[in-house]
Design a protein that fits this description.
By secondary structure, this protein is an alpha/beta fold. The protein contains five helices and five strands. The protein has one domain: 3-Layer(aba) Sandwich (Rossmann fold), CATH 3.40.50. 49% of the residues lie in helices and 15% in strands. Helix 2 runs parallel beside helix 3. The chain has a five-stranded parallel sheet, sandwiched between helices. The radius of gyration is 17 Å and the shape is elongated.
């Protein structure tokens, strides 16, 4: 659940979100849910890795089970390449072990299919808010360091 006061827009439709899912039904559903967001779709983990090399994407929503490279391997590769990228895992699996494996591999959140529009938006809004806090904190640390250098 988000903690944004009512009437205050938190989401940032301009921040690109990469959605990785091989199921065309999920593609259409997510496309409808996130119609006001800037969403880039990939239908395989390999395609997602190529997109991540070219685009400045910090939020990925990835299916856990896909042919070829699965979502867990994709998650590991994303985190190895750039630990700041936030990965939200989605799955139809009802196995608790899948949730634990995803979290151990570095997933930042986890949603079950069928996806709920509000839950998906809440997770994305929370994720983007966290990224903004991190950016603001880094900027503050940079500014403090700069001020310390100027005094010395």
């Amino acid at each position: 659940m988000t903690t944004v006061p009512e009437g205050v827009a938190c989401r940032n439709p301009q921040e690109p979100i990469l959605v990785v899912d091989d199921d065309p039904v999920q593609y259409t559903l997510i496309q409808n849910f996130l119609r006001d967001w800037r969403v880039i779709f990939a239908d395989s983990a390999a395609e997602a890795l190529n997109i991540l090399k070219l685009e400045g994407i910090l939020v990925v929503v990835a299916d856990l089970y896909m042919p070829g490279m699965d979502g867990l391997e994709l998650l590991r590769r994303i985190k190895q390449a750039n630990g700041l990228v936030q990965v939200i895992v989605i799955t139809a699996s009802e196995q608790m072990a899948d949730l634990i494996s995803a979290l151990e591999a570095g997933a930042n959140d986890f949603l079950l299919k069928p996806l709920d529009k509000q839950a998906l938006e809440d997770v994305l809004e929370d994720t983007l808010a966290r990224l903004r806090r991190w950016r603001d904190t880094l900027m503050e640390l940079f500014q403090r360091k700069k001020e310390t250098r100027n005094k010395g």
